Amino acid sequence: MYSEWRSLHLVIQNDKGHTSVLHSYPDNVGREVANVVVRPLGQALNAQLPAESVLKTDKEVKWTMEVVCYGLTLPLDGDTVKYCVDVYTDWIMALVLPKDSIPAPIMKEPNLYVQIILKHLQNLFVPRQDQGSNQVKLCLQVLKAVQKLAHESTTMARETWEVLLLFLLQINDTLLAAPTVQGGIAESLAEKLIGVLFEVWLLACNRCFPTPPYWKTAKEMVANWRHHSAVVEQWSKVICALTARLLRFTYGPSFPPFKIPDEDASLIPPEMDNECVAQTWFRFLHMLSNPVDLSNPAIISSTPKFQEQFLNVSGMTQELNQYPCLKHLPQIFFRAMRGISCLVDAFLGVAVCTASVCERLSSYGISRPRSDSAPPTPVNRLSMPQSAAVNTTPPHNRRHRAVTVNKTMKNSTASTAHSSKVQHQPSSSSPLSSPNQTGSEPRPLPAPHRPKVNSILNLFGSWLFDAAFVHCKLHNGINRDSSMTAIATQASMEFRRKGSQMSADTMTSNPMFDAGEFSDNYEAGRAEACGTLCRIFCSKKTGEEILPAYLSRFYMLLIQGLQIADSVCHPVLASIILNSPALFCCDLKGIDVLVPYFISALETILPDRELSKFKSYVNPTELRRASINILLSLLPLPHHFGTIKSEVVLEGKFSNDDSSSYDKPVTFLSLKLRLVNILIGALQTETDPNNTQMILGAMLNIVQDSALLEAIGCQMEMNGGESNILKSHSRTNSGISTASGGSTEPTTPDSERPAQALLRDYALHTDTAAGLLIRSIHLVTQRLNGQWRQEMSISLAALELLSGLAKVKVAVDSSDRKRAISSVCCYIVYQCSRPAPLHSRDLHSMIVAAFQCLCVWLTEHPDMLDEKDCLKEVLEIVELGISGSKSRNSEQEVKYKGDKEPNPASMRVKDAAEATLTCIMQILGAFPSPSGPASPCSLVNEVTLIKYSRLPSINKYSFRYFVLDNSVILAMLEQPLGNEQNDFFPSVTILIRGMSGRHAWAQQLCLLPRGAKANQKMFVPEPRPAPKNDVGLKYSVKHRPFPEEVDKIPFVKADLSIPDLHEIVTEELEERHEKLRNGMEQQVFYEKSIEQRMEEAWRKKSFPDPITECKPPPSAQEFQTARLFLSHFGFLSLEALKEPANSRLPPHLIALDSSLPGFFDDIGYLDLLPCRPFDTVFIFYMKAGQKTSQEILKNAESSRSVQSHFLEFLLSLGWSVDVGKHPGWTGHVSTSWSINSFCDDEEAEQDEIISSEDVGASIFNGQKKVLYYADALTEIAFVVPSPLESLTDSLESNVSDQESDSNMDLLPGVIKQPALTLELFPNHTDNLNSSQRLSPTSRSKRLPQGRAIPPMGPETKVYVVWVERYDDIENFPLSDLGSETSTGVETTANSSTSLRSTTPEKEVPVIFIHPLNTGLFRVKVQGATGKFNMVIPLVDGMIVSRRALGFLVRQTVINICRRKRLESDSYNPPHVRRKQKIADIVNKYRNKQLEPEFYTSLFQEVGLKNCNP
Known about the structure:
mainly alpha; eight-stranded mixed beta sheet; five-stranded antiparallel beta sheet
């Protein structure tokens, strides 16, 4: 920098201004003269009333000064030297304030005399023998006077300033250049000396900027003092204070301030202008020369003063290592690196120093304790070649575009704690990263406007890279210059090459230098440099280019630092890991060549429970957290890159073993098993809750990704597709040897890994999705009922992981699934059985979460309940949750449910158990229903039945309403619908509204087998058989009054006593007789003819005779089916109608009066209460550089303005639904859960025309369409908000279209109001402003007021933001987009229980997704606060594959919203809200009839009085 300028070193050497005339006389003469002359002057000054000076003329003053000059060289046994100091410190105040005690000549020409005095005062600082304490006091007196002179003098000439600076340089050089003597004056004064020098030098820069020779001289001299730790400490103080001022004007007020102690900030004169600050900063930065020299005792000991003392009296050389000052070099080197690290952090905008450098570094072995300054991924720069740096503008004078850097390294320390071996006793305290920062606090992001990586490396890079390679042992003794120098520019390395060669050669060949004693001690400084470089590269902005020379050196450094062989350097390894959490997230070119090295390092850290080798350097928890962050970014790589092989870097350079595994290329796929082993080993040894949750999230990521990849592979094979990569991922070609547990790749180093022995039992089949799933279930279930069950945060995450694993579509044995269900049941039993004092809201939240997890497993695997023991266990747990105890606690003891006193753990637990029971009884095997997953209920209500029945006479008053057990409302329609039902049989249509939803049943009384019912319409008895008159023989028989035998009986006399008729007949009688005979003949003929006619008529008649036939009565045609139903089902009894004793509950069966006003409004409201939790996700696309909400919203208008992967991601979240026809949640209460929306053909055609245009993702803005996902337990709407103005017109038309929603028939008061739509809560008041009303995502519809509505609980919404440039995350306008993301839920509470969303914007969960150049995606999660903060599976800093992204985002959203509901005091589950509403309806509309009236009403027609609706 100053090569063309001459140093003032010779000028100082040759200057005799500090000698006196008395030096020419014998010592006793000078001493006596000085004693006599100085005493009266000193006594006069120390008198109470100082008299006027006795020295009047110039000659007198000069003569006296000659004496005083000599007096300053005397021993300190008398008062002479003290008087001399008193006199001179009083006289130099002539430049500050005139006093009587100061001679007049000095007052006349103060500058001239002060220059002479300063030269004389140099004599005081020459070390004396055994008189240190007095000399220190006098020296401090002079230094304070000089300080005051520099601060307060306003008339000091440039020449005086220059003399003052040279005086300070000279006295520092006199005391500090020589090797330090224990307890000597130099050790006592070093801090004050260098402090005053730097302080005065800064004042001089402001008032009289030193010329280049002075800077050059200072730099040369300071290089000779660097073996004093105070030099580095004071330099760090000054350069930090200058940097704070520099950043303030270079980057503006928006740049994060570099906070330093006020004491340090006061070193910089407030009036110093910006240009002066910049110039001073750059010169001071290089005043220490190359700080890496501190790692080389040969360089430090090559100064003239050291060389003088190398020869003792006899001329023999001393051993270098006998000088204690050189043994402190490792500590000083570390402090220098720490100072540079602070500067780097300041330029990145992440350093917030809260203590002075001195205080920060007081305990040299401890890692940097600056919580805020430990950056996630700070950046470092290489300093420029010093010869070329003269013409370089400091990088802070150049402005760079704003970019934000990853915030992902949440909890890593900025640097490691290194206990140096210089301290011979072990460090008792474990060095930690930051005393002020809890483990879960995220570290600050680098500032958006920070310099580029290249700029920082241009400034600091050469120092940092050199420091990072200090004393590295390379292959076959190659020193680092021969292998490294070519990578960097020749100029920047020229100076370092000489020093390094000197260090390496001298220390190996010269017996004076014991390499073993020095090399290890420098690990602390080397580790600091490595960590700083890692932070620099991790702060790379999206799309930023880094010079290949820097990248190659950096990768070389990492390969060297990550060695885990015998030469492993634990501080460096820990520092690299701690500062590289986001290294694989930054799109660094070629970074993947380091994957095997990082895996090897992680294998030594994560499965190690104790980390005993690292405890003295770093907080083990933070080291593990950083390691887990790196693991999260490595997990997707094997699947992503498949059979691609990694490159070999520097074959054989770092190991003497020719067969080293590092030198053989391996496929990425072969690394999968090692990564999985690390993951499983980490989970088994991890104790920190946050770290454990991160591992659990990673487990679901890798299992789901494996499952999806295998599913794709199977499809490809079935379709005949050929893909080498996919084939290599299939189970049959997974590359796992079951015998060795390693890869079948001969080059895979798995069998050589140190952690392999520990993890060998996991290796079997864990590369397949099924194997991973089984292993994950076993591990998590084992720990859930072990160490984790006491820890809330881990328990919740483990249950979420189990829920996610239940949804992974992989075939596993039922015993493994049963294990998961059984472990959750055991978990619930344990938590419920804990002592009463331990029962808290948090404990009950854990139990509720476990019940929810149980529901997920049962709905995803309903066949599990086919197993008797599993069903029994689940139902016992439900019973435990509802009643507080099991009926069977042991084999003998059985307590029946009816005999138990209900005593649940809490109402929340009881509600969760009831929901599980409802899930088992009503959802299992019945979801999704034929009507689709959008609604678990029937899409039928009174309006639908009326509309589609063929009976025009029925209306909504034709329904009978009953309530069973105060929990189920039955709406019965007794008239047959006239469609497919058989009208000849009793039929009833029932709408059952219960806690789980609305279900429609059409029931018929079945009297015949199904076959007969199908063939006959009504009951017909069996007919008689037809008569058969032509069968058999017919005989004509003459019927006689008496038998024939009578004729054979002979007559007796008595028989003859009666005469025959003819014997007595007279003519008269004959006539009569004839007449009678004719009459008889006629009668006989007549009767025969009648008989013949009758026979003919009989023959003509049908058989049987309908007149005389006995027939069954006709079937009934009119039925009072409601009465029949209630009676047949046992609901209708005298007991059921009686009020229960000692209870406020109504009877088991009551009727409702539907004629009361408002009844159908409340029934409609009940129908609109959701049956499942509903969540909303608002998705935004943020292009590079965007900051305003309108810019972001406009991105959704065209598919051309977004990346294609974004649209693919959208469709992976859910399926498209039509808002007008959708019966589920749509993202806003005004359009959700509508069951009677019909759209005619014209509207459908219009929709098709609109969708044919390129509207991009804005089609899913919630106005016409929305993305929707539902399972048996939850439903989610994914909304892509779009700009307001472009959709205002179409919104208005949409509002009018909504009138056709026939749900409004249930709300008569609403129908008459034009342009209104049905909202969930009829009392919703219009309290949104007009701008919100125009937004399609913040619609507010006016609805009738008047009724209190139960609260809905917390508004569960999540933002998902796709960011093209990761650095833009900090610019995301979260608060501005709040008005675009209204769901209507926040306005549904009544005024008495205002639940209007009070969640601050910063607490709204936001998932940022950033696509990397590799095709993977980087995730950042922010906004979750409180004890429920970390939600899995997506955690901050995770890398996700394209396949699994949609599933993981959706699962994270579900878990975030579940956690939010768990945390909320106001949330009630859906079945509880419905139960409350049913009770409310019962109280308002109960038909309070007497029992006789109730029975009478069952026999009466319904709706006669109210036939006109």
